[in-house]
Design goal:
The protein is 38% helix and 0% strand. The protein is built from 3 helices and no strands.
């Protein structure tokens, strides 16, 4: 995932859903310029919202998931 990834608690199954979606969309958490990876969705609701927008716009999921604002 990258050096800036902060893993949720091991037994928190619900908290692992969002990182799983990000991993399958090939979204990484690199540490660039010491400022962190940028925006990444933290909840499944945010992830689903961005993926729905990506489907409507025909945009790759990886690009939609790292955008801070939903179009």
């Amino acid at each position: 995932m990258g050096s800036a990834f902060a893993a949720p608690p091991r037994r928190d199954i619900a908290a692992w859903r969002t990182p799983s979606v990000l991993l399958h969309a090939d979204v990484r958490f690199p540490m660039d310029c010491g400022c962190g990876p940028g925006y990444r969705p933290r909840t499944l609701h945010e992830t689903r919202e961005r993926m729905a927008c990506a489907r409507r716009a025909g945009e790759p999921f990886a690009r939609a998931l790292v955008r801070a604002e939903v179009p």
